[in-house]
């Protein structure tokens, strides 16, 4: 088959896949249209911004770094969204009689279809326009724009092809589930960086970095436009050549890994067979826990926090956000020690939808619960597993916040409030787990609710949080009264601590007492609700 | 039927049927999955529940094991009502469902340890039984690997081990041989035959007639949410040459396209 025919086949395949994907559900169609509009708006704003940047003395620095960032995004993207583009997976083409040369060309052209490439094109065109002054620079742009775009796409494809074994393995899918976390943390860093930029006196701070990046493909293609505008034609040519060489090298690497993928045997089963074993890793933990259902359930819950990527992701973000919010506020001078209660609140949310976290494996639990007593022990064990982490962590966050603010005298009060809130969250979480269970899709990092159960999840968590606040009201009122009657620093404020501890413990116990009979009665309904993912 | 484990009939003590179902219904929206079935499965038998895909086998087994609430009807296992007396029933049954997950982030051995202890068995006993089951089911080499890394056959085997761990009176298996390689299938067969030989009951669903014919002594045929026939294997088979033929007749799926439209297929003409 000739390259041209093959290319047209792949372009049509890509369009069909896109169309059929959209036909699957109206939700997906809506999501596509919304993201399309959003990306186009973003691209338009970027384009406008880049055009307005024209003439700015630091334009080159910003534009070159943006291109570098874009290329980095393309390189990392396939690692996190391996299932986003089915034509990305060359192992699907193994059975077809195709030569790698034409295949590479066809796949590269096919990968030009899509929102991502369109956005990239807008960015690159805007970048070239911001920098090009004069006829020569315009001519260089004509080469530089497609070159930069192709390098980005080839980069994504090469990374994907080189890592396909990883991406189709269980480890790779686990990695993808954790990607949401990396992106969230990454955004914090970018945010931090932008703030630092503001402090450091604007765009001039970018110049040293840009001096290097403008020689790195594909940013070097954009750098060439700037060099041509300055009349440094030799430099422009060198920069263009660098990007061109990079493109050729990427295509060759891609072709090499394609050939290897399509001729070597599939190692997925071999990989599974050589997975490391887990002998004796938790025997110590086992000895510390009580016998019977309590210890057994606690042990499984704690193992899942570490081993299940979805659970791990939820825990890490809860722990991180629970610490970041009070501490950052304290460091910025706008904080209050009461913000530390936020940690108890974030961690208490982990109690919600307990059975949804089991997925449809809940049937194993359901088959062993035959009385209210069993259900109570199950819920109590899950709560205890949570407390193993949440109790010390709540204390830690409150103490660190107090240290950051220097408000040591309010420490017992904040601790008492936190414990009461934690207890209320655990109690409402237990009841919500029994009354409003919902499925958590396991394959996607970004979906935490199965289609059609969004309202249920929202009701469960939002309603529960409001209830928890109401349940906490006695302790909150006590705190306010003590503060109002005696002023800050009074001798009686410490009483909030024992009151909070006792109240939190009592309300947790009461919540489980309410939730247990409902759980025991609703086992088949819970199983149906959590098996939709 | 009275709610007791053993009933008196004319002075002769007879064990109650392993499963007794009366007027069982289940609808999912417009679709009727199970349309009022009556079923009596004798204790101590190897029972096959056969039917084409979508016949309602999984729905029936889910309702019988208490994992799905029926719209209507009564289910008794070993003489105890599944919905009114869960304590008696749940300790007597073992289940291997189809299409539901396991706790896949546990290793095979951890899964058995977890399941056995949840069922209230003493820890030492669980570990002893788990070790033997893992050996017999040929999973000893993979016992410390996470279940998520297991193949289909290994998953079925570890699920079977979990279902057998508390030595149930009645074992319910939904498609236990689906997607299982011949070696694992033979292993599973051996364990099940040994288990029924001691007087326990196995109820399993399948659409592979040869398998049912070679394993079972009692068969119930399901199609479109109803029971088309039930009884000892020979009775259900009747005059037909094989269970397959009898089954096709019962579900009315004979004499379809004889293949004239595919006359280009095969050697010779291109």
TrEMBL record, chain B:
<dbReference type="Pfam" id="PF00005">
    <property type="entry name" value="ABC_tran"/>
</dbReference>
<dbReference type="InterPro" id="IPR003439">
    <property type="entry name" value="ABC_transporter-like_ATP-bd"/>
</dbReference>
<dbReference type="InterPro" id="IPR027417">
    <property type="entry name" value="P-loop_NTPase"/>
</dbReference>
<dbReference type="InterPro" id="IPR003593">
    <property type="entry name" value="AAA+_ATPase"/>
</dbReference>
<feature type="domain" description="ABC transporter">
    <location>
        <begin position="19"/>
        <end position="249"/>
    </location>
</feature>
<keyword id="KW-0046">Antibiotic resistance</keyword>
<dbReference type="GO" id="GO:0005524">
    <property type="term" value="F:ATP binding"/>
</dbReference>
<keyword id="KW-0547">Nucleotide-binding</keyword>
<keyword id="KW-0067">ATP-binding</keyword>
<keyword id="KW-0813">Transport</keyword>
<dbReference type="InterPro" id="IPR050763">
    <property type="entry name" value="ABC_transporter_ATP-binding"/>
</dbReference>
<protein>
    <submittedName>
        <fullName>ABC transporter ATP-binding protein</fullName>
    </submittedName>
</protein>
């Amino acid at each position: 088959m000739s390259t041209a025919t093959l290319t047209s086949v792949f372009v049509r395949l890509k369009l069909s896949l896109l169309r059929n994907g959209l036909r699957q559900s109206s939700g997906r169609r809506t999501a596509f249209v919304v993201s399309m509009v959003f990306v186009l708006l973003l691209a338009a704003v970027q384009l406008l911004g880049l055009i307005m940047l024209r003439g700015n003395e630091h334009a080159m620095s910003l534009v070159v770094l943006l291109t570098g960032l874009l290329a980095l995004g393309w390189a990392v993207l396939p690692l996190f969204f391996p299932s986003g583009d089915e034509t990305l997976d060359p192992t699907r083409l193994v059975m077809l009689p195709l030569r790698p040369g034409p295949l590479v060309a066809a796949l590269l052209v096919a990968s030009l279809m899509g929102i991502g490439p369109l956005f990239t094109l807008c960015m690159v065109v805007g970048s070239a326009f911001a920098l090009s002054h004069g006829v020569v620079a315009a001519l260089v742009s004509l080469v530089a724009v497609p070159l930069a775009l192709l390098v980005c796409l080839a980069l994504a494809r090469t990374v994907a092809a080189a890592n396909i074994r990883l991406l189709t393995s269980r480890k790779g899918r686990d990695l993808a589930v954790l990607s949401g976390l990396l992106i969230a943390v990454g955004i914090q860093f970018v945010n931090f960086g932008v703030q630092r930029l503001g402090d450091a006196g604007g765009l001039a701070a970018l110049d040293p970095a840009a001096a290097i990046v403008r020689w790195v493909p594909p940013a070097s293609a954009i750098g060439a436009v700037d060099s041509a505008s300055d009349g440094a034609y030799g430099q422009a040519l060198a920069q263009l050549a660098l990007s061109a060489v990079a493109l050729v090298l990427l295509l060759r690497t891609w072709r090499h890994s394609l050939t290897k993928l399509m001729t070597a045997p599939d190692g997925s089963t071999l990989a599974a067979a050589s997975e490391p074993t887990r002998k004796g890793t938790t025997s110590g933990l086992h000895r510390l826990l009580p016998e019977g259902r309590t210890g057994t359930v606690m042990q499984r819950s704690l193992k899942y926090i570490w081993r299940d990527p979805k659970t791990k992701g939820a825990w890490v973000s809860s722990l991180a956000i629970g610490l970041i919010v009070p501490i950052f506020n304290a460091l910025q001078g706008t904080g209050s020690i009461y913000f530390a209660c936020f940690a108890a609140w974030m961690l208490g949310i982990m109690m919600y939808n307990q059975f949804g976290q089991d997925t449809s494996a809940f049937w194993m639990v359901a088959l062993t619960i035959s009385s209210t007593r069993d259900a109570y022990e199950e819920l109590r064990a899950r709560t205890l597993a949570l407390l193993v982490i949440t109790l010390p962590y709540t204390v830690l966050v409150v103490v660190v916040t107090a240290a950051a603010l220097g408000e040591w005298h309010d420490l017992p009060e904040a601790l008492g409030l936190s414990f009461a809130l934690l207890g209320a969250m655990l109690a409402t979480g237990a009841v919500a787990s029994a009354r409003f269970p919902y499925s958590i899709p396991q394959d996607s990092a970004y979906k935490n609710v199965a289609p059609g159960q969004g309202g249920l999840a929202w009701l469960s968590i939002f309603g529960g949080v409001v209830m928890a606040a109401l349940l906490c009201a006695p302790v909150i009122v006590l705190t306010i009264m003590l503060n109002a009657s005696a002023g800050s620093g009074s001798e009686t404020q410490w009483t909030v601590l024992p009151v909070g501890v006792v109240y939190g413990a009592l309300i947790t116990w009461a919540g489980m007492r309410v939730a247990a009979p409902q759980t025991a009665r609703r086992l088949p309904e819970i199983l149906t609700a959590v098996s939709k993912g | 039927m009275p709610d007791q484990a053993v009933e008196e009939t004319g002075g002769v003590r007879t064990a109650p049927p392993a499963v007794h179902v009366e007027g069982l219904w289940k609808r999912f929206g417009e679709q009727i999955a199970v349309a009022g079935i009556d079923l009596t499965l004798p204790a101590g038998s190897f029972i096959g529940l056969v039917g084409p895909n979508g016949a309602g086998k999984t729905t029936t087994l889910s309702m019988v094991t208490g994992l799905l609430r029926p719209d209507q009807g009564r289910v008794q296992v070993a003489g105890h009502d599944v919905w009114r007396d869960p304590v008696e029933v749940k300790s007597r049954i073992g289940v291997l469902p189809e299409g539901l997950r396991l706790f896949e982030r546990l290793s095979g051995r951890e899964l058995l340890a977890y399941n056995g202890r949840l069922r209230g068995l003493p820890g030492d006993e669980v570990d002893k039984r788990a070790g033997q089951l893992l050996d017999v089911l040929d999973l000893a080499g993979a016992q410390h690997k996470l279940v998520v890394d297991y193949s289909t056959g290994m998953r079925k085997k570890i699920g079977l081990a979990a279902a057998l761990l508390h030595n149930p009176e009645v074992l319910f298996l939904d498609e236990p041989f689906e997607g299982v390689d011949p070696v694992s299938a033979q292993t599973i067969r051996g364990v099940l035959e040994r288990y029924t030989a001691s007087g326990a009951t196995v109820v399993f669903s399948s659409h592979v007639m040869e398998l049912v014919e070679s394993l079972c002594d009692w068969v119930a045929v399901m199609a479109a949410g109803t029971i088309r026939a039930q009884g000892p294997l020979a009775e259900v088979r009747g005059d037909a040459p094989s269970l397959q033929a009898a089954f096709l007749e019962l579900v009315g799926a004979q004499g379809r396209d004889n293949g004239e439209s595919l006359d280009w297929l095969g050697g010779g003409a291109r």
